[in-house]
Write a structure and sequence with these properties.
Length: about 140
């Protein structure tokens, strides 16, 4: 029992360190202020940072917890939709912070058709995740 508790504590600590490093990168790059600017909620930057750290904590607990969450297929679908929206919005914010999209548009001369590029990226992520889960590659 003590060994299991110690292993859980080590796993949780390692997960917090790794996830906090990722969160520090996201915060350090200025993605949270950019995300707040895009969503027109600049007064909530500290709240966004708190939510990021809470997500890290809950994500680590979820990975370490060996039980099931009884939400069924509907709960899984709702979670998947919200997780996808969340991840997609962070990817777009990261891309804007590092000016990936501006450089891509300038290099490929995609000024008028750029919304189609964003839609193609989103569709590719969606179809890729469908393929990933339908083939059972997880």
């Amino acid at each position: 029992m003590t060994a299991q508790f110690l292993m859980g504590l080590i796993g949780f600590g390692g997960g917090v360190v790794a996830a906090s490093g990722a969160a520090a990168l996201v915060i350090g790059l200025g993605i949270i202020p950019r995300y707040a600017g895009i969503s027109r909620t600049p007064g909530r930057i500290l709240w966004y940072e708190d939510c990021a750290m809470l997500g890290i904590l809950l994500g680590n607990l979820t990975v370490l917890w060996q039980g099931e969450i009884p939400l069924g297929n509907v709960g899984l679908a709702v979670f998947g939709i919200f997780a996808g929206i969340f991840l997609g919005s962070w990817i777009i914010a990261l891309g804007e912070v590092v000016d990936v999209f501006a450089i891509l548009a300038r290099r490929l001369k995609l000024h008028h058709s750029f919304p189609w590029v964003i839609a193609a990226i989103a569709a590719g992520k969606f179809l890729g995740s469908l393929l990933y889960f339908s083939k059972g590659w997880y």
